[in-house]
Design brief:
It is a single chain. About 0% of the residues lie in helices and about 25% in strands. With about 625 residues, it is an all-beta fold.
């Protein structure tokens, strides 16, 4: 019987599920990865290699090596990670460190951002030490550590590998220098082996540590080998397998690490002052497995035929178009002269400013887990002098179906009575603001969810002002005089975004205001519109907490030489869904869920705490 009720035309059929072939995507420079299907994917992520040192310097450390699946040997094998069909993920490929007439520069990190606000980060390789200005210099830590330099009577130590630590480990330590007559550098560490030590007599550099072979590209390729250490006599010292550059011979520069292997650069010769080789750039490869696309049934069907298919469990499932607002918990403000907390990540469809609107979800009838992220809890600064001000807490993620918004980053804090940072602003949905300290900056925000926190600033007289936390609609601001506002004010939190999914437009995800140092800091930084808490005021002023169920960041605490405050807690997140009138929404537990009907007929479900949403026919 034709499945089209006698209508002239082709016979309708339920289209069988389709298989998508496995797909490999290779990045030799930074870009964006778009998933072909919802699945767990394998990866290879290698950081940029460190450069070799000059003048019989050490070999550069290899970039960090992280991988999953059967493509890599079991001791180095991590777990596959989730991606969602059609979603885009940022890929960063780290560059190799530059060689110079002194110590080699470290390589840059490579990063694979994947679903759930998580990352696989492979650290850049550590730069190698140089004998310029005297030997005995240690190599730099990194994914794998840079090799050390040495001179008569003085021998440096190789830089540590697996820095920061990961499990499985991402690399090995660089080789040490040796005491004796003359100069020679240790080899750079590789992904699977430490760099070799230099040898005296002989003034010969150490060999680079070996990398790891991986078949994710379709054939075995070795990555992340360390650079060979420079010497004065004999043949060049070999770089490790996996792109490590060899050292210079009697009068030449070190060889560069191989492109897109993360290999370390070789150390320069010491006969004359020769530069070390540059590190090799990193690489990211993602392998998507073969997947099945669900069946479909386009066209016009008779009820009898539909009934037969349903009875045989061979019919498609009806779906509802679901708009959403998913806001994560905000981060805590810093505890002493601290930066404001970053707002929780903001994602929405159908409502709110058009540049931030995502695509509505098509969901089958049934039950779905809803997670509402909590705000980071505030912590109090401590005395006496030079005690480390405790780190604040980032907010936690909110999620519904395939949408996950990242918790806001906590604000940075300054150590009591000094200008030493306990921490910069932390990254998050929106980044936390930094305390005013050398080299410390606001945390980064997640693309499409938020904005960065601001750096700290200096007021007249050397007083310190915390930066504002980032908001969903704008980055945090620096404190006056570097960012505007009244003299001595902390940085304002970034503004949030309005959303009318509940009916009236409400702002969400504002950043927390920065704290300041008394006596200049009588004016706290304002919280961003959208529940951001203001910075503290007064000698021991505590930051104001972010507003509940807005994802607002907490305000940074003020501080003086004799008293400290508490960073404001972040505001909890919220999840709201909205469907057309022909569908029904219910939720549990009762205290977490509120259902309502818009005057236009749409059904709305609001979760102020975690629970379960059920979608059904009205």
């Amino acid at each position: 019987m034709a499945g089209n009720g006698g209508i002239i035309g082709p016979t309708n059929t339920v289209q069988a599920a389709q298989c998508l072939s496995a797909k490999r995507t290779t990045f030799t420079s930074s870009g964006t990865f778009t998933a072909q299907a919802t699945a767990s994917v394998d990866y290879l992520v290698v950081g940029g290699g460190g450069a070799g040192g000059s003048d019989a310097g050490g070999g550069g450390g290899a970039g960090g090596y992280r991988a999953s699946g059967c493509f890599t040997p079991s001791p180095t094998r991590g777990s596959a990670v989730p991606v969602v069909s059609g979603a885009s993920y940022t890929i960063t490929v780290g560059g190799g460190g530059a060689g110079s007439g002194g110590g080699g520069a470290s390589g840059a990190n490579s990063v694979f951002n994947y679903e759930g606000c998580a990352t696989i980060t492979s650290a850049g390789g550590g730069g190698a030490a140089s004998n310029q200005g005297g030997g005995g210099v240690a190599g730099t830590a990194g994914g794998s550590g840079g090799g050390a330099a040495s001179s008569p009577g003085s021998a440096g130590s190789g830089g540590a590998g697996n820095t920061p630590p990961t499990s499985p480990g991402q690399g090995s330590a660089g080789g040490n220098g040796s005491t004796g007559t003359g100069n020679a550098g240790g080899g750079g560490g590789g992904a699977s082996a430490v760099g070799g030590n230099s040898t005296m007599p002989g003034r010969t550099g150490g060999t680079g540590g070996n990398g790891v072979a991986n078949t994710i590209s379709g054939s075995p390729v070795s990555y992340a080998g360390g650079g060979g250490g420079g010497g004065i006599e004999g043949a060049p010292s070999a770089g490790g397998t996996g792109g490590g550059g060899a050292s210079g011979d009697n009068s030449s520069v070190g060889a560069a690490g191989s492109n897109n292997t993360g290999g370390g650069g070789g150390g320069g010769s010491g006969i004359t002052t020769n530069t070390g080789g540059a590190g090799g750039p990193g690489i990211v490869i993602i392998n998507e497995p073969a997947v099945t696309v669900p069946k479909s049934a386009p066209g016009i069907w008779s009820m009898n035929t539909v009934y037969d298919f349903v009875k045989d469990n061979n019919w498609i499932t009806r779906t509802a178009t679901v708009d959403y607002l998913v806001v994560a918990g905000g981060g805590t403000g810093g505890s002493f002269r601290g930066g404001g907390g970053g707002a929780g990540g903001y994602q929405a469809s159908g409502y709110g400013p058009s540049p931030t609107q995502g695509t509505a979800l098509e969901l089958s009838f049934g039950s779905y887990t809803v997670t509402v992220g909590g705000g980071g809890s505030g912590v109090q600064g401590i005395n006496p002098a030079d005690s480390g001000a405790p780190k604040g807490n980032s907010g936690t993620n909110s999620s519904f179906s395939t949408i996950t918004s990242c918790g806001g980053g906590s604000g940075g804090a300054q150590q009591t009575h000094s200008s030493v940072c306990q921490m910069p602003g932390e990254p998050g949905g929106s980044g936390g603001g930094a305390a005013r300290c050398s080299g410390k900056s606001g945390g980064t925000g997640v693309s499409g969810q938020g904005n960065p926190g601001a750096d700290g600033a200096a007021a007249s007289g050397g007083y310190n002002l915390g930066g504002g936390g980032g908001g969903a609609g704008a980055a945090g601001s620096q404190g006056s005089p570097d960012g505007g506002g009244a003299p001595g004010s902390g940085g304002a939190g970034g503004a949030g975004l309005p959303n009318a999914i509940l009916g009236p437009a409400t702002f969400y995800a504002g950043g927390g205001g920065g704290g300041a140092e008394i006596p200049v800091g009588d004016t706290p930084g304002a919280g961003g519109n959208g529940g951001g808490g203001a910075g503290g005021s007064g000698a021991a002023g505590s930051g104001v907490s972010g507003t509940v169920n807005t994802g607002g960041g907490g305000g940074g605490a003020q501080g003086s030489p004799s008293s400290v405050g508490t960073g404001g807690s972040g505001g909890s997140g919220i999840v709201v869904v909205r469907v057309p009138s022909e569908f029904a929404l219910s939720g549990t537990p009762g205290p977490a869920f509120t259902g309502s009907t818009h005057p236009g007929g749409d059904k709305i479900g609001k979760f102020t705490a975690s629970g379960t949403l059920t979608i059904s026919e009205a």
